[in-house]
Amino acid sequence: MRLPTFLGLIILTATLSACGQNRSTSTTSNPNLVRGNTEERELSDPNRSTIWDVFGPNSSEQVTQVNRYLWSASLDVLNFLPIQEVDPFTGVIITGYGTPPGGGRSYRATVHISDPALEARSLSVALQTSGGSPVSAATTRAVEDAILSRARQLRIADNKF
User: Fold this and answer.
1) Strands, DSSP E only, in the chain?
2) Count of C-beta atoms within a 10 Å radius of residue 112
3) Which of 1, 126, 131, 151 is 20–30 Å from 16 (CA)?
């Protein structure tokens, strides 16, 4: 009777100690931590979870931090390129190679919308050619300007100006 009780206590202790594994006991500020509304997550492993996460707030709902006008305008302006990958939660659009109307060189684009504001700093466009030759900064800037102009048009048409 004494042996099963002793083994049960060992198993219970091991289980509880495993739940607290990788918890920081330091009170100093760690630059690798991102503070959320109610929790701290390590940047190196944002998907890490413990038994205590079951009792915490529900964080399964993701909030989109992408400007919808920039998102729609990017898809409108680059509609001649085949879409390979889109992620509205991170604001990334990756296209395949395509030739613009009236152009002779094929391009591919990667668009990153990093902020919910309708501003130029929220938009980043990277262009590549199929031949590997560099794309001029003026061409990239022209595409960014076209996307920003289209986003402003969409916002005005939506009566949110």
Assistant:
1) 33-35, 40-42, 83-87, 92-95, 107-113, 123-129
2) 17
3) 1
User: Using a CB cutoff of 8 Å and minimum separation of 24, what contacts does 83-90 make?
Assistant: 88/64, 89/62, 89/64, 89/65, 90/66
Tally of domains in the chain: 1
Domain that holds residue 136: 68-157
Coil vs helix vs strand at 144: helix
Distance CA 127, CA 110 (A): 7
**Percent of the chain scoring above 70 in pLDDT:** 66
151: CATH: 3.30.530
pLDDT in tens, 81-100: 999 999 988 999 999 999 99
- Determine if the pTM surpasses 0.85: no
Bridge partner list, 105: none
Residues 151 and 153: their CA atoms lie apart, in Å, by 5
